[in-house]
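Teaching assistant here, posting this on the class forum so everyone can see the example we discussed in section. The complex has two components, and the goal was to see what a joint structure prediction looks like when all of them are supplied at once.
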Amino acid sequence: MKVTLSALDTYESSFTPLVVIELAQDVKEETKEWLKNRIIAKKKDGGAQLLFKPLLNKYETETLEHHNLYLVGASQIRLLLGAEAVGLVKECNDNTMRAFTYGTRQNFKGFDVRRLLTSGIVIQVFPLHDPEALKKLEDTWYTRFTLKYQPIDSIRGYFGETIALYFGFLEYFTFALIPMAVIGLPYYLFAWEDYDKYVIFASFNLIWSTVILEVWKRGCANMTYRWGTLLMKRQFEEPRPGFHGVLGINSITGREEPVYSSFKRQLRIYLVSLPFVCLCLYFSLYVMMIYFDMEVWALSLHEDSGSEWTNILLYVPSIIYAIIIEIMNRLYRYAAEFLTSWENHRLESAYQNHLVLKVLVFNFLNCFASLFYIAFVLKDMKLLRQSLATLLITSQLLNQIVESLLPYWLQKKHGVQVKRRVQALKADIDVALYEQVILEKEMGTYMGTFDDYLELFLQFGYVSLFSCVYPLAAAFAVLNNFTEVNSDALKMCRVLKRPFSEPSASIGVWQLAFETMSVISVVTNCALIGMSPQVNAVFPESKTDLILIVVAVEHALLALKFILAFAIPDKPRHIQMKLARLEFESLEALKQQQMKLVAENLKEEPREDIKEKAA
Amino acid sequence: MKVTLSALDTYESSFTPLVVIELAQDVKEETKEWLKNRIIAKKKDGGAQLLFKPLLNKYETETLEHHNLYLVGASQIRLLLGAEAVGLVKECNDNTMRAFTYGTRQNFKGFDVRRLLTSGIVIQVFPLHDPEALKKLEDTWYTRFTLKYQPIDSIRGYFGETIALYFGFLEYFTFALIPMAVIGLPYYLFAWEDYDKYVIFASFNLIWSTVILEVWKRGCANMTYRWGTLLMKRQFEEPRPGFHGVLGINSITGREEPVYSSFKRQLRIYLVSLPFVCLCLYFSLYVMMIYFDMEVWALSLHEDSGSEWTNILLYVPSIIYAIIIEIMNRLYRYAAEFLTSWENHRLESAYQNHLVLKVLVFNFLNCFASLFYIAFVLKDMKLLRQSLATLLITSQLLNQIVESLLPYWLQKKHGVQVKRRVQALKADIDVALYEQVILEKEMGTYMGTFDDYLELFLQFGYVSLFSCVYPLAAAFAVLNNFTEVNSDALKMCRVLKRPFSEPSASIGVWQLAFETMSVISVVTNCALIGMSPQVNAVFPESKTDLILIVVAVEHALLALKFILAFAIPDKPRHIQMKLARLEFESLEALKQQQMKLVAENLKEEPREDIKEKAA
């Protein structure tokens, strides 16, 4: 017994650095000592029972900078124990890393590293990349440009389920877009301007958008079943780190924690956040009207001169507007984060819901209001097509550059600098590790899958809302997504710090968001078809009949959509069977347990009863 | 130990007869003996460990008839054990009976009483009424005509959750209708024929129908939480009794059971059931057209003569049609049951879903097709109102008579006969018990809450679909429901055999059915308002604008409805809190368990590891 625990305490035996902690420069020695003790203390004493080591030893710190970096690691034994503790030991053989990160996350909760972060003692905590595993992952993922599926299971092994699910969805969505792109191409090639052909396209679009979302649910269940997170039990939610309030007693857990009145929060939401969001929406519409003025101005300029040069000028307002939309979206994103954080939600999930709602409403209006205006107020299909094309292509190009390529280039430049500096030192240390820590310390932090899903959501909007006017949209989306996979992969592997692994069972609220978008797209497409000259020609004398028929068809389609969504099972049959088997076995086990209980009671209780009667 | 079990075996000590088993006349003595042994055998030998006794002893059977009736009972001890076995011992003190019925149900499964029923050995198995408890229940329930809430908890104690939930829903729905009825009355009293007032009424109706369904979910959660069934674990579903097939291995349970190919079932559904349902729908529409012919004939007759007598004649076609609708509904119900049973579904839930779908589609069309036809094809609001009133009132009157009053009268007559006959015998037996068994043996069996909910569903349709044309509908519905509570209670207590108690957590598929109806009612009401002359007068020159505005308002209302349904939490806050507390505690317990596991592993496994390293 003694042997075991002392073995776990030593630093030397099989130390693999996994997480880096950076402390503030002015932290006192006592604090450091306390933190170290919390990390290396045994489980039963409330510690994390992990290994802790400064990046540089005493001698080195005198010659080099960065003396407040510490490495946290674990022995192989601790990793296995962690895996067992979270119940993750199953048939997979790629989960050593995962077991650790997941385990660590729980252990860190013990001394609440988040509180240390907000108090400023700890500057940052991040897991280190594993250069060897990363190289292997990159080789199968994106470095070779061949057409093949992504190694989703390896991505999940390295980054965790949440990120793997995003890449799985991105891939699935791209493949799902291909039929749309293929059907859309001839419209461009043969310049099919007939609206009756657009009717076919729109009808196809309706069924397509419903079916792909339903099929995704099944594919997603397939993946998460394989990973063991499909039936994941939600962790009991602790208050989120930013939450503050007067200390009180939580009526659910009975623990002492900050309490904040729900009434005050409601006040903040309805008196500050809501007016602010409305103001932003108004501002967005105001900008849109300026765009239309510019559009008119450009058109009049073109008509006055009629030269080739002014023909290109026609696209300029749209491009400028697209860039402004991107900028507004990003600015609003920060404001929404600030406001939602200020609303002081107790739970991370409530915070996320309020944030998603704020951001989605604004982004939807900001991106699509001008298109709806052109389609249904101006009724100018040519302008709609031009505007849609410019918005879609500009936003995609901007995203790729701002999100991945630019940061990658900056990161590479910085990497060369650091390498040069480290080589110049020629100190007697583990150069590779030192270099890695210094480099990754400066990398950006991955802020979660929110922005990535949002991008796909808006893309889905461009493709499905007005696809019957611009069938080429799907082709552009496919093209973008093929490069997006690679640039996102590059971003994850080379530009950003390695994120902590998060388990998840599905894409969550985004499924709902995509489904809502597809309902809106049914309505929009029906309206567009109803407005087309071809359909109008069928009812030359009575416009009323036309509208009534379009509305009836739209209602039928919506009903069909809901029935379809209801009729397609969310989980594939073989998984349903396996889950039923699991449930059956656990019920059998429960029954056995209860039988035992009854048998035990039979031995004890009734005898008393009988005795009384006999007496 | 010996004392206990032998005490459980004796018949005499505290025998309360609870269930009656009627065997076929030609059952052999060996079969009877076997059955008896299965019932009284101890639990560990696979028996039910209950008491079993013929209704009459040897001597009496010679002088009296009905010698194949047997009583199954339980001692007080067994009841308590049963309650404990199903984990029902909680703060309630009314659950002795419930514990028994529930327990029995499980014990009977052991020797599959259903198989004995289908094989014809056992004619019927039914629980006996408990005259004393029944009297008490009736006194607080319906015998005294005072305006008060029903004793839902007592109903649940006597009949189980499923039936109590029906009465709870009936009561809730009646109270929810009162505001509608109150607002509707002045329309009748002051003969408000202005359509703008109908617009107000319809708008109110929209919000009302959404809100009451959402609020019901919360009330229902409240009740079932109190009863402990809210978090009820679904029992693992065994094949339903009627299911047959070639013996095979169930891949989920690994047990041998009948297997029936899903392909064959699909064939039966799509090649037989579906065409049959379509044929019935066609027939129903055909009957409807005959009704309209009759309507025209009656009108022409009235116009020719113009007398007071023919004025009444105007209502005759509607009344005849209403009666025919009722008859068709009932006939179709039997056909649907036969067909669904013939489709040979393996699970009771699949059977129920297919049956509900078949019956709902037909009943909806059968009851409302003529109204839709009058409203949107004939556009005759006067006829619509008259037709609606006749249909609603006739169907309600018919239902009350056929369902409760007529059977009650027959039952009473039969009761007097039995009493006279028993008193004439003057044999030396427990006359009260004998009389009760003979009487209840002949009572009808309660076929579940299906028909009762269906009736409410159709009523909800009459009230919400066309309420803006006939605001008095709600008042009639309220009036009907107040008597319905009493006649249904009478039916449950005096006309039908006591049903086995069934636990349930909600009204299940009916919630969905009511919600679908309320969506249809939004669409219908919007269309009716759009057709009204008043609204049309606002847009004298452009009918197109009017339709577009109505459609836009309808979409906005539907969106609002979905947002409202989404925003109102399904469970009241205090229950959410309690459930969260429960979850927290179970997670804490799990954590404790895992901690122990880790501690144990620390003691054992690592030592091996270290030893190896040391070696």
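For the discussion questions: Confidence is low (pLDDT under 50) at residues 1-13, 83-111, 605-615 of chain A. Chain A touches chain B at residues 1, 3-5, 7-8, 43-44, 77, 81, 84-85, 87, 233, 235-236, 251-253, 523, 543-544, 547-548, 551, 555, 577, 580-581, 583-584, 587, 594-595, 597-599, 601-603, 606-607, 609-610 (CB under 8 Å). Think about how each of these relates to the inputs above.
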